[in-house]
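INTERNAL AUDIT FORM
Audit reference: QA-55
Scope: verify that the stored structure record matches its stored sequence.
Auditor: D.O.
Record contents follow.
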Amino acid sequence: MEVDKLIIEDWSKTTLGYYLGEVERVGEDVATSFYNQSDLSRVKNCELMIIGINPGAGCLLSNSDFLYRGNPCFQGLSDKEIIYEMSQKYDKDKKRYGWDLWKKIHKMLSYAGKGELLEKLDRFVLTNMIFFGTDKENQIPKGVNKEKCAEQTIELISILQPKVVLLLGSQSRKLFDRVSENKLEVLVPNSMYHCMSGKSHVLAIKHTAYYYSSIEMELIGKTIGYILDHSEEIINKECIYASYIKEDIICFEESRMANQPKRKAKMDSTRIIELIITSPYFQLTQIEKENYSLSKNLMIRITKTGNGYLAIRHKNYDVQYPNSKYDFTERYRNILMEKGWNCDTPVWLSKKLIKDYGRKDDEIVTKIVSEINDIVELVHKDN
């Protein structure tokens, strides 16, 4: 659809009035820098609109030209020069340069043969849900009415009527959901959301500042390409899974599962203790709940408290354990320390966590029973 420049100019003036009102309402805490990214005067037939949460840097700007004419750093540059600024990889000193956002989305689109879309300023628009510029998104003043700001951007979508709106990041997605009549629904789990906004297909993905695997970039790029080619049709999860993208979705899901860190199973200390005390090799006599006799003078506690631990002390201990008054204390402690026991405690002669014996239940039980028998043999020599 050919863009009506007069309607866009009216939008920029109305939006300027709203933002100036926010500055006056909120006061000095609000940034007075607000601008759109793309030069809307160059847009003829918008196919793709890319929306982040807000501009990433601020300077003192409060002129409607920057809502209509776009990012001030591009003022005076030709289309070719702007694309060069966004796309170049290194500057003359071999330092990274350009816009990672542009590069990643261009690469995504290239998987669908649509990369040239980002090389034509009359075919795509880069903008934000909120036009106040800050170094970080969490610096947007709390007093700003984000929903009302976002409504100005929703209005711009309705004016430009792009085939695809690409929301970047969870903040943009959540804010869009709060102000839009249609709510985003999962299109591809763990990757994309989708809904309609007027005649435009809205696709929400994580921000390009985050890591993307080549598999996910290809999936997103092909999905955007599919929607661009079928923009007049109903798009939902079922039709995407029935399209040629299905194999890419399967590949992405398999890759994601393969790269997920293995979740360590939570140790069941109750079960482990039950296995210990029922082992045929566990020969200690129970004194009272959780306490077992090691020798005439010593006992060991085997408890699930605090995820499980073993602890040794004299049977006739005081509340504050005066280790020095008992025979063989230092000798026992030195030997237990060599076995990984913690002797830096005023209550116990020594203490050791159940989890320190291994990862698997059988391994833990075997090691604990064996070590208890070694300790029994040691203390019986001294008793």
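Auditor finding: record pair retrieved intact. The chain is about 40% helix and 15% strand.
Action required: none
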